[in-house]
Amino acid sequence: MKLLHAALLLAASTLVVGPVMAAKKKPAEPPCIKGKVLSAFQMRMLQTELVVGALSCKMTPRYNDFVTAYKPDLMTAHKTLMAYFARESKLEDYKSRTANEVSQRSIANIAEFCNYSTALYDKLLGTEKVQLPAFAAMEPAANRHDQNACDAPSVVTASSVSGKFSGQPRVKPDAPADATVAVPVAAPAEAPAAPGAPAQN
Hints:
Blueprint lengths: L1 H21 L12 H22 L3 H10 L1 H15 L2 H21 L1 H15 L7 H7 L19 H4 L40
């Protein structure tokens, strides 16, 4: 009888505990980003796209020109992200992860990737200088930052791509459509060195 009584108590406790455990809430989503933080992520992602384009498509001089032309905006974005991540190691991990994602897309379709990179450089280094934060906000590639943007439509992010090429967003280049595409090279995660440029990965 004692054994039966103990078994009944155990069964009753399981019935009580079971639903309570099942009712635990799912982990909360990270807080959404907006304003200067969102803009910083967009500029950082655009810069990553251009870094990989420079390495994969042999356009390092164009990347250096980009850094020189937009150094104040890039430095502002860098400082904002440093404050957001709180630790430099976390920012470096993020930069490496997104650079690897872009590199995978470049490998998947190098010709299209280089065409897109060329179009980006043509626009950013054209005769009329663009407002980098506004340009990045509207550029699909810059919104692959893998962050939860407040009140923003769903976009393709670094984590959801999983290394598969999903096509590059189109930007009309200033150069002729039959412009020669440079022969691609391997795309490492590290950025080319540029005078005064923020630390790259």
